[in-house]
Design a protein that fits this description.
eight-stranded parallel β-sheet; 16 strands; alpha/beta; single chain; eight-stranded mixed β-sheet; 413 residues
């Protein structure tokens, strides 16, 4: 058993102790649990640090991670140019290379306190042997003791404009992908974008899996796959099981239309995952520059489940990224213009409870008796201080077992 003493649990008053069973479940949460009455118990003194559920990151691209450690060069710094940069790199992939980079990225995400991850893997005729998927699936196996990883079959280059991808998508699902992915904006024609969405829904229905697509990830107000996806979600009754990533085009649409679409998203109970780091840095706008993110504040106010995630780590799209939720959460707070303790808490929820609903809408999550004991001890008094300082996490705990520790430390000499 594990006993955590003197923790300030998020959403609890005062200081409490947390008792965790050998099976990795929360047994008891209350003040002053007597360790002397529990044989063989391991004790951790949280020293009144904050205890919060481990982070959930539902939008990654582990197959591409660390492919730009030597830099990235392009002429326009746009999304389209970033896709082109990756083409030659994808063609040069080996299973061993992808596995090594993905394993490193997964382990580093866990080090920062994330124990549930979801990654896209490119499926296209650039990689007809699905080398990237083989490598990521091997990385998933290699890291299964420290995290839960879901893999998305992701047609980065489109389905109908990329010959053979339709068959490769089904092959990817047969190989072990967990989620049906899509990117309708990659198609040339509007009717093909809608067929793309239909294809993904049909595939998800066949395999009994959730959907997580990149949707309208542009600054083009005429990209409008989001509303069709929300409508299909509503018609099929798949609330909570369909997620749209990025969804930036709605920001550039007129207000009356955008409000109508957001009402439909809310009615359908569709999730949105905005990934503020990558799209905020892409695209050299004329002044005044845009933030390149979806309508975060409005969606929150309308009751839509919106989360945020890392997206990429040092690849052809984005030189930066660490995998630390408190890094990308802080950037999310800036781009959302969240600047109060209450809105800082909204951003923290996007890293935890809101992302958990995307990862598994049926799962129990959080620090409560009977749940899996997955928690971080964070060296901060509150969530805004955790974000501001990207605070140390001396104990990262999964299923009642300490699996990592992260310390942010500076010393003035």
């Amino acid at each position: 058993m594990l006993l955590i003493k003197n923790a300030r649990i998020l959403d609890h008053d005062g200081v409490k102790d947390i008792l965790i069973s050998d099976e990795g479940k929360y047994l008891e949460i209350r003040p002053n649990i007597d360790e002397s009455a529990i044989a063989g118990v391991q004790v951790i003194d949280a020293k009144e640090m904050m205890a919060a559920p481990t982070f959930v990151n539902t939008h990654m691209h582990f197959d591409k991670a660390y492919t730009s450690l030597r830099g990235r060069e392009d002429s326009t710094e746009t999304l389209e140019d970033s896709i082109r940069i990756m083409h030659d790199r994808i063609r040069a992939y080996t299973v061993e290379d992808v596995k090594a980079r993905a394993t490193r990225a997964i382990r580093e995400c866990v080090m920062y306190g994330t124990t549930k991850l979801r990654t896209n893997v490119d499926i296209s005729n650039l990689d007809p042997n699905l080398v990237a998927l083989q490598g990521v699936l091997e990385a998933k196996e290699a890291t299964k003791d420290i995290c839960d990883l879901q893999v998305i079959a992701f047609p980065q280059e489109g389905i109908f404009c990329n010959a053979g991808t339709d068959k490769l998508m089904y092959q990817a699902m047969d190989m072990g992908c967990d989620i049906a992915g899509g990117m309708p904006a990659a198609e040339w024609l509007d009717d093909q974008k809608l067929r793309h969405v239909d294809f993904v829904f049909d595939m998800a229905e066949k395999y009994g899996v959730m959907i997580d697509m990149h949707i309208d990830q542009s600054k083009d107000m005429f990209d409008r796959s989001l509303e069709y996806t929300a409508w299909l979600t509503l018609q099929k009754g798949w609330g909570g099981r369909v997620t749209g990533g990025h969804c930036t085009s709605i920001t550039y649409q007129n207000q009356s239309h955008a409000i109508k679409v957001m009402k439909l998203i809310k009615e359908a109970d569709m999730n949105i995952c905005t990934n503020t780091q990558v799209l905020a840095i892409m695209g050299i706008d004329a002044e005044p520059r845009t933030r390149g993110v979806t309508r975060i504040r409005e969606m929150v106010d309308m009751g839509i489940n919106i989360a945020t995630a890392q997206d990429t780590i040092c690849d052809g799209f984005h030189l930066y990224g660490t995998g630390d939720p408190l890094d990308y959460g802080l950037i999310g707070a800036y781009t959302s213009q969240y600047n109060t303790p209450e809105t800082a808490r909204l951003m923290f929820d996007m890293l935890t409870t809101r992302s958990a609903r995307i990862f598994d809408p049926d799962a129990k999550y959080g620090i409560a008796v009977g749940n899996d004991a997955d928690l971080n001890i964070i060296d901060a008094d509150n969530v805004q201080e955790a974000l501001r300082t990207r605070a140390s996490r001396p104990y990262v705990i999964r299923h009642g077992r300490v699996i990592a520790s992260f310390e942010r430390k500076a010393t003035l000499l």
